[in-house]
Design a protein that fits this description.
heterodimer; A: about 475 residues; alpha/beta; TIM Barrel; 7-stranded mixed beta sheet; 3-stranded antiparallel beta sheet; 16 helices; B: about 375 residues; 2 domains; 7-stranded mixed barrel
Chain lengths: ~475, ~375
């Protein structure tokens, strides 16, 4: 039997994790590593590797084919544009200290789509092949321009057989027209809730009355709409995190069971936001603690909540088809299935690229609605948008599960060739996948119950994560 | 039970395919343009039978209300005075039995093989072209790929002529060859699901179930072939006493070796054919021993591979797995028992096989409130 190359990493319990390029993985001891490295595999080793599809006898046999299939599925990339993030206005009625997009003041002029831009956006949408579309309205505060949202939604409903709309709103001001817009079944709400009231006010609203207005509106939307209509996420300052227990209580109270614990992004105004030294280590500790907190809480309440990004990474490990989160895919080619249209009609490959360009460090725009997507520029960005040949990633056991983030590298380091282990992206994801594997190999009942819930299966048992003993 | 064969009187010698139409009074005037060569329309009906006329007729159908036959496609056998309802227009369960020959002798076979073979592909092609818009047509046997040249030609023609149709083909996967590659890739595989049985990861268990030495080895090679030609595979495992204990190992095997399947279907046994003969040594009471089933499908699903329970009455399945148990028992084979009275799940439940025995079945069943 020929064995596919295995990469390995020491786990928190001292044993070794092995993974092949197609994402097949198992846990084994040091002794197996010695035998593997010195070409001295035992008959048991060979049988284990064969049964796990880590090797093959001849090309095109079933183990070879299944490995090739899993590998190819992990690389497959979407080709159909069906998700657009639209920024009809950059103006906002809040002034959050960590604002990632450097929003414009509510009364400012020249930060909304012009008539020509709206026409250009609709024409761009009109050229998409369909049959489905998802539109996310970002800002600024998009509800300041409900009229533009209506125009886009009316157009999409007409043009596409399936369309879905998400409004990323701060829920500060909702008039009758806004409520009417949100009432539609094809329209969803995404908002920011930074945990407890104190933290939310400190980070976002800065004023008791403004905070009251937000919570009043949040209560109102929760009362008015079914669960699933509203999603929310907290932005967490690692130097001053909210009470995480209270955060979960608050989220559950508002019917949101999936929490995307998001660190302050290194973009826009947030670049000036000082979080102290060694942020990545402190963030990783906080996040790891949050996962343990979730497991204990789920066990205690019998009601399951998740950390959205952790669940995503967990699925990236176990499945070959978990490509639906744009922050972690490999390759992660730009402007393939989604694109951002800014307030001035320019295209950006990601929301972060838009934010980064806004502060004038670099222009990451990739064309505009009048002239179309600038494919030459997209190609330049794409040349760094995968981890396959990175001199550090090729040695990493987590390579098949992980991704890369060109825009974050440019934002933080001004270049894309910094050694991986020195980057925020790598530091964060090494810790995330360490945590994923720690959880996968735990055998206590509370962890198993949460794992099953996060994976959408009825039960998880200790035979489900392979071990070579 | 819904009858699949009806009595007919017809003035013809050779078998032929015909579609029956019943037009409402107001449609009568447009009737001639609406009928094609293979159609007849209802002229009159009396308590004994219904008379149809048209280019394909005349034909008199006996003993069934014509309202149940509107749009049905019949294969008429004039000598026997019978007609097979090849396509029932209102049913999602239409299957062409292309042969009764088979090279395997499965211990639970619901349709034991016969030596005699009559080639009906010409009629099947005509019938398929008359199928309702968007229909899925089942192809079964016997083993359809024993006549794979005829099968491939049939599929190719129908898939081209009717871009709206889908096929679900049951095959034991023994007869594909590397030489079939270009033929297979030439078919629109996005409209075909290949239902292929695998009973165990252990070759001796699988081979024993299908009564053929070396069958599993051949099957695994051909599953790899199906993957390489981009075929959608529904892997089917009938749950029985001989293979139930090994179900979790089979699940592990699937996650490692068969990640490309579209669905893994774990299926309850049918008490008919050899299944009835061997019932005592075959039937696995999953209402009492669901543990192996649950563990197996949880493992497969945790890897992002779809798994389903076919032919399981919902009351025999723990609540957490019921959403994986669609109503798969074909309408014409389906029945509900006295125990089903007042069950809140009846509308979503596939019920029982008509021939499921009263006293050798599930230990635990009954209406769910």
């Amino acid at each position: 039997m020929k064995v596919w190359p295995l990469k390995f990493r020491e786990m928190s319990d001292g044993s070794m994790l092995f993974a092949d390029d197609a994402g097949g993985f198992f846990k084994a001891g040091d002794d197996f590593l010695d035998r593997y490295a010195t070409d001295g595999l035992s008959a048991d080793d060979s049988l284990f590797l064969k049964e796990g599809s880590h090797g093959f006898e001849r090309e095109r046999d079933l183990p070879w084919t299944s490995f090739a299939y899993r590998w190819a599925r992990r690389q497959s990339r979407p080709r159909k544009m069906n998700y657009v993030i639209l920024v009809p206005t950059l103006r906002c009625n809040l002034a959050c200290g960590y604002c990632q997009v450097s929003r414009a003041p509510e009364k400012a002029r020249g930060f909304d789509w012009s008539d020509e831009t709206l026409t250009g956006v609709l024409s761009f949408l009109g050229d998409l092949e369909g049959p489905d579309i998802k539109v996310e309205f970002q800002g600024g505060e998009p509800m300041l321009r409900v009229d533009l949202l209506e125009a886009v939604r009316d157009y999409c409903r007409e043009k596409f057989s399936q369309s879905q709309f998400v409004v990323c709103t701060n829920l500060q001001k909702l008039d009758a027209r806004a409520w009417a817009f949100l009432d539609a079944d094809d329209t969803f709400i995404s908002t920011s809730l930074d945990g407890d009231r104190l933290t939310h006010e400190r980070q976002r609203t800065h004023d008791g009355d403004v905070t009251d207005a937000f919570f009043r509106n949040l209560e109102a939307v929760v009362a008015r709409y079914p669960e699933g209509k509203i999603s929310a996420l907290p932005t967490v300052d690692v130097a001053n995190p909210p009470d995480l227990d209270a955060l979960l209580d608050n989220y559950e109270r508002y019917g949101v069971r999936s929490v995307y614990l998001r660190p302050i992004n290194h973009q826009g105004f947030a670049r000036k936001f000082h979080q102290g030294d060694n942020v990545v280590a402190r963030w990783n500790r906080l996040h790891s603690g949050f996962i343990d907190l979730l497991i204990a809480r789920n066990h205690r309440t019998g009601r399951f909540m998740e950390e959205y990004y952790f669940s995503q990474c967990l699925k990236r490990v176990l499945r070959f088809d978990a490509d639906n989160h744009v922050d972690i895919r490999n390759p992660n080619f730009f402007a393939s299935d989604y694109v951002v249209v800014d307030h001035d009609g320019r295209f950006y490959p990601t929301d972060e690229a838009r934010m980064l360009s806004r502060i004038g460090r670099i222009d990451l725009s990739i064309g505009d609605v009048a002239t179309g997507i600038d494919r030459a520029k997209v190609d330049v960005l794409n040349s760094g948008a995968f981890n396959h040949f990175d001199p550090d990633c090729i040695h990493c056991a987590y390579q098949p599960f992980c991704g890369t983030d060109v825009v974050d590298d440019i934002s933080r380091y001004g270049r894309v060739d910094v050694p991986r282990p020195d980057t925020w992206f790598c530091g964060r994801h090494l810790a995330l996948f360490d945590k994923v594997f720690e959880i996968l190999y735990r055998n206590d009942a509370p962890t198993r119950a949460s794992l099953a819930a996060w994976l959408g299966v009825a039960a998880w048992d200790d035979g489900m994560a392979p071990v070579h003993s | 039970m819904i009858p699949l064969r009806v009595k007919v009187e017809v003035n013809a010698e050779e078998p032929f395919v015909v579609r029956l139409r019943s037009f409402e009074a107001e449609e009568r005037e447009r009737e001639p343009e609406q009928l094609n060569h293979f159609e007849v329309s209802l002229e009159r009906a009396d308590p004994d039978g219904a008379d149809y006329a048209g280019e394909g007729g005349p034909i008199r159908v006996l003993g069934i209300d014509p309202s149940e036959l509107d749009g049905d496609v019949l294969l008429v056998n004039p000598r026997r005075g019978t007609a097979d309802r090849l396509i029932r227009s209102t049913s999602p369960h239409n299957t062409f039995l292309v042969t009764e020959r088979c090279d395997q002798v499965c211990v639970m076979c619901s349709q034991p093989p016969k030596k005699h073979h009559v080639d009906l592909f010409t009629y099947f092609e005509t019938a398929a072209l008359l199928a309702p818009e968007g229909a899925t047509i089942g192809i079964s046997g016997g083993e359809p790929t024993l006549f794979k040249e005829r099968l491939f030609t049939f599929l190719k023609r129908v898939l081209v002529a009717r871009p709206d149709l889908f096929f679900h083909i049951l095959t034991n996967g023994q007869h594909f060859e590397e030489d079939d590659r270009s033929t297979m890739t030439g078919l629109d595989q996005s409209r075909i699901v290949w239902g292929v049985p695998l009973y165990s990861h252990d070759p001796s268990v699988h081979d024993q179930v299908v009564g053929k030495q070396g069958a599993q080895e051949r099957l695994l090679d051909n599953l790899a072939f199906l993957c390489r030609v981009g075929a959608a595979v529904e892997l089917r495992t009938v749950l029985m006493q001989p293979n139930a204990p090994g179900l979790p190992e089979l699940a592990r095997f699937i996650t490692a070796m068969l990640p490309f399947i579209r669905t893994w279907a774990v299926m309850q046994t049918e008490n008919i054919g050899y299944g009835r003969m061997n019932w005592k040594t075959l039937f696995y009471d999953s209402s009492e021993g669901f543990d192996v089933v649950g563990r197996a499908i949880d493992l497969v699903r945790s890897r992002g591979i779809d798994a389903r329970l076919y032919n399981f009455p919902l009351c025999t399945v723990p609540e957490a797995y019921r959403h994986l148990a669609p109503a798969t028992i074909s309408d014409w084979k389906r029945t509900y028992r006295e125990e089903c009275e007042g069950c809140s799940l009846k509308a979503e439940c596939g019920g029982f096989f008509e021939w499921h025995p009263r006293d050798h079945g599930y230990g635990r069943l009954g209406a769910v409130q």
